UniProtKB/TrEMBL annotation, chain A:
Localization per Swiss-Prot or TrEMBL: Bacterial microcompartment
Chain's role: Catalyzes the deamination of various vicinal amino-alcohols to oxo compounds. Allows this organism to utilize ethanolamine as the sole source of nitrogen and carbon in the presence of vitamin B12.
Record-level Gene Ontology MF annotations: cobalamin binding; ethanolamine ammonia-lyase activity
Keywords from the named record: Bacterial microcompartment, Cobalamin, Cobalt, Lyase
Annotated source species: Chitinophaga barathri
Quaternary structure, from the entry: The basic unit is a heterodimer which dimerizes to form tetramers. The heterotetramers trimerize; 6 large subunits form a core ring with 6 small subunits projecting outwards.
Coiled-coil ranges from the UniProt annotation: none
UniProt name for this protein: Ethanolamine ammonia-lyase large subunit
GO cellular component: cytosol; ethanolamine ammonia-lyase complex; ethanolamine degradation polyhedral organelle
Residues involved in substrate binding: 160-162, 193, 287, 362
From TrEMBL, chain B:
Keyword Aminoacyl-tRNA synthetase: no
GO function terms (MF aspect): cobalamin binding; ethanolamine ammonia-lyase activity
Reaction catalysed by this enzyme: ethanolamine = acetaldehyde + NH4(+)
InterPro entries the record matches: EutC, EutC_C, EutC_N
Catalytic activity, EC: 4.3.1.7
Complex formation: The basic unit is a heterodimer which dimerizes to form tetramers. The heterotetramers trimerize; 6 large subunits form a core ring with 6 small subunits projecting outwards.
Name of the protein: Ethanolamine ammonia-lyase small subunit
Species: Chitinophaga barathri
GO biological process: amino acid metabolic process; ethanolamine catabolic process
Recorded metabolic or biological pathway in which this protein acts: Amine and polyamine degradation; ethanolamine degradation
Locations listed in the record: Bacterial microcompartment
PANTHER family linked: ETHANOLAMINE AMMONIA-LYASE LIGHT CHAIN, ETHANOLAMINE AMMONIA-LYASE SMALL SUBUNIT
Homology family: Belongs to the EutC family.
Length: 457, 245
């Protein structure tokens, strides 16, 4: 099926669904690099006007990547919940936008609708929405997950403590971990990006965090972000809480990551059997990011934001504890500057939440992107308002292993204080008990005699 | 600022000996103390300046080597940053300027994401490497200097020169602590279409990282092995162990 839209005698032709979605996408460098962007400002609005009138049902009849060709398309089509979709089945994409912002779409209704919405519907509606719309709709959604604590409750913001070290030195990692915990970070997960993917290194890092966690009774979970096959290999020998994997929105992208749906299913089943969660069994941690499909030459002529949204269908299958869009890591050829990074982060957070995922955002940039700390402050504040489940905590915002800038432990304190957001309830109690925070959420000065410092200074 | 009246210090600065991470910064309210904010901003400024730095052509043409100056298809930095494909291709005028040299190796210096790194470290590195190569009668084509280039542009250049092996020196993406890191890529039988698993990479060459002498010795080892085995990439293992001082 193709569409035509005429503005002042100029007729625009969109030959298929993926072209229409790409042309309707707000400008970003990655779509231009792929040759998929609208050619003019007018063409972009023409595409958006066409998309606004498109019935949502179209997405159940037409796939952006053929069903026979891509297992993620098959996953999306085969698991679509017609009952959940029924209340919005008669809407157009534009109608969905208006409905999402209306008072009818409250927290409970949005939760019930999630399984009826496909990634392409979410991507489509987000392309019509302003940043303000993406924030106010997401703010109404609540996605709660549990392992050793409760993440995603309204009015709460959790932090992934990211104590990376360029050579995986255990003392160096412990030093950053203690720094973060003393600053109130670490309730989403204590998660290390290892410098090497060797099983021995992964086992020693997992043991390090787990011993520390048990010694000080920290109500959180750990993860070493190795490849999923490495995690499967070590999970009988080492304390694996969460199983991590980077995922993308096309079968080819996932192949470039060395995974498939069946491999993810196998890892998920094995991780569930470990039964290490105390109050819940969300055992997966996924990372995504716009541009990964194009970067792997696996985008199938689908725009990068739609590809990203399709990755959420993969995540949704495995009931993750955390989904993190690493928005500014990929570089300026995909997201050029602060404006594009901010827009992409709000889209990802909204689309993920709409599909029922526990979304967090790595508010970040690389040194060759046209962005700085001011852009990150803006984005962090917007995400705090939007009700983001978690952000990263990196010492001084400077990740010495991955060589990029993310949010700091101080940034997490700032956003919690500015918006009155609190840590996960179990972790909050721990912070109070350890004298790191008062009942009002204020950070307390730490004496040199503090228990966490005793064995390390 | 010298008094730092309002700063809550972190009494665990002793942990800093274990990591270069920015820990125990202290705080005022929830904020990082200004002293640290300015240090961070300075590091970022160095990284940004490095991204927008340009090759110092005069510096290279003053050397006693035959130099050929080339340009990619990327018009300027903004184009370069958004269009990595253009940085991988020679501008037609540059591509037309070649004659095959039929030498063993082609040394190619590329600005990459930090011309600062190339300006500072390429010459001292080549000064150490050249005598090593000549001592084993490994012949070198004229040195190629490339503006607005990426790693893969060396494949086109090496192919046009009909070199057996390319040694490409390129400024790496600047980190906050390293705005001037030089990377070296070795590619056997360079020609367009080669992928990254067919290369060997030596990273972080600078006095505070991998020093020149060690880097040159490592490259020399890999060059000899590549020419002997007729390959580079994952099959060429970096078994070189430098003698410790």
């Amino acid at each position: 099926m193709s569409w035509r839209h005429t503005i002042h005698h100029r007729s625009y032709h969109f030959s298929d669904l993926k072209t229409l979605l790409a042309k309707a996408s707000p400008h970003r460098s990655g779509d231009a690099l792929a040759g998929l962007s609208a050619d003019t400002y007018e063409e972009r609005v023409a595409a958006q006007m066409t998309l606004a009138d498109l019935p949502l049902k179209t997405f159940l009849q037409q796939a952006v990547i053929p069903y026979e060709q891509d297992e993620i398309t098959r996953l999306i089509m085969d698991t679509h919940d017609a009952t959940a979709f029924a209340p919005i089945a008669s809407l157009t994409v534009g109608g969905l936008r208006d409905w999402l912002l209306s008072d009818l779409a409250d927290t409970a209704t949005l939760r019930q609708t999630a399984a009826g919405i496909t990634p392409e519907m979410a991507a489509a509606v987000s392309k019509l929405m302003r940043n303000q719309d993406l924030i106010s709709a997401a703010r109404k959604m609540e996605v709660v997950t549990k392992f050793r604590n409760t993440i995603g409750l309204k009015g709460r913001l959790s932090v992934r403590l990211q104590p990376n070290h360029n050579t995986d030195d255990p003392k160096g990692i412990a030093a950053s971990m203690i720094d973060g915990l003393l600053y109130g970070s670490g309730d989403a997960v204590i998660g290390i990006n290892p410098a090497t993917d060797s099983p021995e290194a992964v086992i020693s890092l997992l043991t390090l965090i787990d011993n520390f966690r048990q010694q000080y009774h920290v109500p959180t979970q750990s993860c070493v972000l190795c490849h999923i096959t490495t995690a499967m290999q070590v999970m009988r020998k080492a304390p694996v809480d969460l199983v991590f994997q980077s995922i993308g929105g096309t079968e080819k992208t996932n192949r470039s990551f060395g995974v498939s749906l069946s491999l993810l299913e196998e890892a998920y089943t094995a991780a569930l059997e470990l039964k290490r969660g105390t109050i819940g069994n969300n055992v997966m941690y996924f990372e995504t990011g716009q541009g990964s499909s194009l970067s792997a030459n696996a985008h199938e002529d689908v725009d990068q934001q739609t590809c990203e949204s399709r990755a959420y269908a993969v995540a949704r299958r495995f009931n993750p504890l955390l989904v993190n869009t690493v928005v500014g890591f990929i570089g300026p050829e995909y997201l050029f500057d602060g404006k594009q990074i901010i827009r992409a982060a709000l889209e990802d957070h909204f689309c993920g939440k709409l599909l029922g995922l526990p979304m967090g955002v790595d508010v970040c940039y690389t040194n060759h992107a046209n962005a700085d700390q001011d852009d990150m402050d803006t984005l962090l504040t917007l995400l705090g308002v939007a009700g983001c489940n978690f952000v990263m905590g990196v010492p001084g915002a400077d990740d010495i292993m991955l060589n990029y800038q993310s949010t700091s432990f101080h940034d997490a304190l700032y956003i919690r204080q500015a918006l009155g957001l609190r840590p996960a309830p179990e972790f909050e109690q721990w912070l109070i008990q350890y004298g790191l925070m008062d009942q009002n959420g204020k950070a307390l000065p730490v004496p040199s005699s503090h228990l966490l410092l005793q064995n390390y200074l | 600022m010298s008094e730092e009246l309002y700063i809550t210090p972190d009494p665990w600065s002793g942990l800093r000996r274990f990591t270069a991470a920015r820990i125990a910064l202290g705080r005022t309210g929830a904020a990082i103390p200004l002293r640290e904010v300015l240090q961070f901003r300075l590091a970022h400024a160095h990284a940004r300046d490095a991204v927008f730095s340009a090759l110092d052509l005069r510096l290279f043409t003053q050397q006693p080597w035959e130099i050929n100056i080339l340009h990619s298809e990327a018009a300027d930095r903004t184009d370069y940053l958004q269009r990595p494909d253009k940085g991988r291709k020679l501008h037609p005028a540059s591509a037309a300027s070649f004659a095959p040299a039929n030498k063993d190796v082609a040394i190619i210096v590329v600005d990459g994401l930090s011309a600062t790194a190339a300006n500072q470290h390429a010459i001292p590195l080549i000064e150490r490497l050249m005598p090593m190569l000549l001592s084993r009668k490994i012949s070198c084509a004229p040195i190629q200097l490339v503006q607005q280039g990426r790693v893969a542009i060396g494949d086109e250049i090496g192919g046009l020169l009909q070199a057996k092996l390319s040694i490409l020196l390129i400024g790496e993406r600047p980190g906050l602590s390293s705005p001037d890191s030089l990377g070296v890529y070795l590619t056997f039988s360079p020609r367009p279409g080669i992928t990254d698993e067919a290369r060997n990479c030596i990273s972080n060459i600078r006095p505070e990282g991998l020093p020149y002498d060690m880097a040159a010795a490592k490259i020399f080892y890999l060059v000899q092995e590549a020419l002997r085995l007729q390959l580079t990439g994952i099959m060429l293992k970096d078994n070189y162990t430098p003698a410790l001082p």
